[in-house]
Design goal:
By secondary structure, the chain is of the alpha/beta class. It has a single domain, classed as Metallo-beta-lactamase, Chain A, CATH 3.60.15.10. The strands form 2 sheets. It has a 7-stranded mixed beta sheet. Helix 6 packs parallel to helix 7.
């Protein structure tokens, strides 16, 4: 099982980059996690779009879905070129019915509902979900193959339930959108110290920080995390592959 950051930013991307998104792969199956601004362009550095097997969406804020329309049009264009393919499954929650319905498009993509209380099989992965604390309904997710797992917090404030959800994971990918001086002042996000606390309490074997702010020195966020978590920790790096 391997996972590659496609984008690392929260809110909107810096020049020539993308918002937080990941490509997870195992046994030849390729799944995109979130599809925000700049993601479709970045993804093509690592995988032809027609090779994508599934997409999982944590929530429907623009920095996580902005490129879905372009992805759907890529399937339409491929169809017009005579390259017929089965509909691409896009997994998303149904708490926002209007946005969920947009996941299905002209028989090229097919929306599939996910809930916090049900494990779904997506290719070789058993994928479970946990509700987060965010201004809109949002789901953290954990991909498991055998006894190995990768947990992603998605966008969230601190929530105790995430500790058990990520318990013993081989890799915790945590959002860390806040500097310490903003802790408790911006709804729906974690500071570096909280990401470190989550990794420590969950017993995660490795921590990667994502959904980073576009201002300031982001190394300060990593410093705050490693002051609490003494395992391997780093800022997500686009194109770097983490193998579990």
């Amino acid at each position: 099982m391997k996972i590659t950051p496609i984008g690392i930013w929260g809110g909107y991307p810096k020049a020539n980059s993308a918002t937080s998104s990941f490509l997870i792969e195992h046994d030849g199956f390729h799944c995109l996690i979130d599809c925000g601004s700049g993601v479709l362009s970045s993804l093509q550095n690592y995988l032809p779009l027609e090779k994508l097997d599934a997409v999982v969406i944590s929530h429907y804020h623009a920095d996580h879905i902005a490129d879905l329309g372009s992805l759907q049009f890529s399937r339409i264009i491929n169809f017009y070129l005579g390259n017929q393919a089965p509909p691409l499954p896009i997994y998303g929650h149904m708490e926002d019915q209007e946005n969920f319905e947009k996941l299905s498009y002209q028989d090229q993509t097919m929306g599939i509902g996910i809930t916090e209380d049900r494990v779904v099989q997506i290719g070789p992965f058993d994928v479970s979900f946990c509700r987060t604390i965010h201004p809109v309904y949002c789901l953290a997710m954990k991909f498991t193959v055998g006894d190995r797992s990768i947990a992603l917090t998605a966008d969230t404030e601190w929530r105790d339930e995430l500790v058990d959800f990520a318990r013993g994971t081989d890799l915790l990918i945590s959002e860390a959108n806040l500097y310490e001086e903003h802790l408790g002042k911006a709804p729906g996000h974690l500071a570096g110290s909280e990401a470190g606390k989550l990794a420590k309490l969950a017993g995660a074997k490795q921590l990667v920080l994502t959904h980073l702010p576009l201002h300031g020195n982001i190394n300060e966020i990593l410093d705050a995390a490693v002051a609490i978590y003494d395992g391997p920790a780093e800022l997500a790096e686009v194109g770097k592959t983490y193998e579990i």
